[in-house]
Every structure is written in structure tokens, then in C-alpha cells.
């Protein structure tokens, strides 16, 4: 490569990598109320930017599932007659899943929700009285937890109107947290007597123990279409817990940002970007939302533009393939609300790129003029 071209290319590469991605913050608000500083939480977002979660109503006590769009705001999805519902996930077709109470809050059922069909109960497993839906893939297959005859709760998969018990890893409890487009399910299950939980993946009718880091417990929360799994696992000295990614049979510790304590990864998108939440004092008050890009963990509070003034982002729960991130945090008014983070262009980087292009053009013009003078 000619020297001036190599110099210009190096400048452009440097300019494009000087700054991390910045995000703008949108407060999703509530359904009209708050309760002790709590207003809303977001749990899922699809590639169209539709967000789901739950929010406090005007009465200050009822908590209902919502869907949210930038154009239409927050919409109450209702319940099965009770005072509580929560939406946990949405697929790219717009089908929402979650859990809702019945009249008198006697019990709860997993639901699917579409604009055309409203809220539909998934029912329970044989002999059961309870179910809850946690995730849905783009084929419409739903996973979650439910009770049944002879056990407290097991993970299930729901497809074609049938709810199937996934079993356990030898104990009596399990729950499913995520599913990808090929139908691989992830979650956690106990392996025997006691209170030890282990992350699992489930495919082809087989539940596989993913192991842990170097502590007793682990759980898997999300999986992308490439099969990379994320979650958290205990590390020594217990009860320290670190976020992990699992790929190719290997569980990798993603670490923490502010000391040897707690992080948990909740979701991963198609490009491998991960989001989650951490704390510098265990389950205490000092929390931070994070993202992991190319193996590097970044506190999302450190990459906000001016719209983030006064915010403390506590947990990032989900993201889509466009890099939009949702979760919850404390807003400038001191209330815990759902948020949406949108990637935004960085003026400083753009200026450097423009400057780099201008410099490149200047070098080209000068060389051309020099050649013309010599001719």
C-alpha cells in the first residue's frame, strides 16, 4: 500500500475506535402509579423495538404486564381477573408471553398474548395448579415453569397446544429461562437432595448439565441462535457469583467490574453482545447494568449521552439484534423505572471520521497537484 493511503486508512481506523458506543436513555414510565419508589420493569424487546414488562397502575398496588412502542407508549395487557401480571418476553412476530393472576389472585397461569387474540392461558401440566411462561422463540415455542402431580415445579416447553414436562437433572425441581430459534432450551435444575442448582441445556429430549465455575450453583438465562449460552455461576469463595458465557462445551467466566462479587448475564443477541447486571456488595444497593462486547465488560452508566444525567442503570435484562437494550434503573426522580437504551452516533467520533476523510482528500489533492506541476 502506498504511504499516504496507509496513513489515511490508519487514521480512519483509529478514529472509528477511539470511543465506545454511546446510548441515549428513554424512561418508559408507568401505567399511572408507583409503589415505594417502584414504577416499572422491562424484561424483553424484539427486533422491531417492541418492549414488554410490568408496571404499577394508578391505584399504586396493582402491577400489570405492558407492551411499549416509541410511537404508542405503554399499553396495559390486563390479567386473568386478578391484580398482577407480568410479560417476560416477545418474539419477532409480536407474540408476548408471561404470567397473570386469576380473580382473587387465587392462582397464576402462563399466557400468550397477541393484539388480535388478547391474553390466552397456557393451562398447566397434568395435576398442576400453576404455570408461568418465561420465553418464546420466533417459531412460537414457549418455555417456563409449572407444578404437577408429585412435584413442586418443573420446566416445561409448550408447542401446538401441548405442555411437556422437561424433567430435572436428578432432583425434584427445574425451570426454563430461554429458548433459541432451533428450539434449544436453557435453564436450571437441581441434581439431587439439597438446594444445589445447575445450569442446563435441553435439546432432542435430553437435558444436559452445563456444570459450574468453581462453586456449587449455576443457572443459564439466555441463548442465541449460534448456541452461545449466558447466565451466572458461583465462584470461590462462595457465595461470589460471576456471569458466564458457555460455548463449545466450555464455561467462561465474564468477571466483574468493581471487585470480587456479583454479576449475572441475562441475554445475548445474534452478534454475541451480552447484557446483565452486577453489584459491588453482593445483593446490596450498589448495582450497575452492563454489556459485554468482544469479551470486554462495560458499565452502561459510563456510556450514556446527556439524556442519562441523573440515571443509575441497575440491570440490563434484554437486547435485540439492533443493539437496543432494556432493563430497569433509578431515574433522576428517584423512582425505579424501565428504560430503553438506543445506540447513538458519537459526535466526537463522527468529527474525527470527517476530519480523517478530509485529511485523506487533502493528501490526494496535494499529490495530484504535485503530479500536475511535474507534468
Task: Please provide a brief summary of the model.
The protein has 375 residues and is mainly β. The protein is built from two helices and 28 strands.
Your description of this structure?
By secondary structure, the chain is mainly β. The protein has one domain (about 20-345): Peptidase/esterase 'gauge' domain (Methylamine Dehydrogenase, Chain H, 7 Propeller), CATH 2.130.10.150. It has helices at about 5-15, 345-375, and strands at about 20-25, 40-45, 50-55, 65-70, 75-80, 80-90, 95-100, 110-115, 120, 130-135, 140-150, 150-160, 160-165, 175-180, 185-190, 195-205, 205-210, 220-225, 230-235, 240-245, 250-255, 260-270, 275-280, 285-295, 295-300, 310-320, 325-330, 335-345. The strands form 7 sheets. A 4-stranded antiparallel beta sheet has the order 1-28-27-26, with no helix packed on it. Helix 1 (about 5-15) runs antiparallel to helix 2. The model is unreliable at about 1-20 and about 350-375 (pLDDT under 50).
Task: Summarize the topology.
Elements: H1 3-17, E1 22-27, E2 40-45, E3 51-56, E4 63-69, E5 73-78, E6 81-90, E7 96-102, E8 108-114, E9 118-121, E10 131-136, E11 142-148, E12 151-159, E13 162-165, E14 174-179, E15 185-190, E16 197-203, E17 206-211, E18 218-223, E19 229-235, E20 240-247, E21 250-255, E22 262-268, E23 274-279, E24 287-293, E25 296-299, E26 312-319, E27 325-330, E28 336-344, H2 347-374
Antiparallel strand pairs: 1-28, 2-3, 3-4, 4-5, 6-7, 7-8, 8-9, 10-11, 11-12, 12-13, 14-15, 15-16, 16-17, 18-19, 19-20, 20-21, 22-23, 23-24, 24-25, 26-27, 27-28
Helix pairs in contact: 1-2
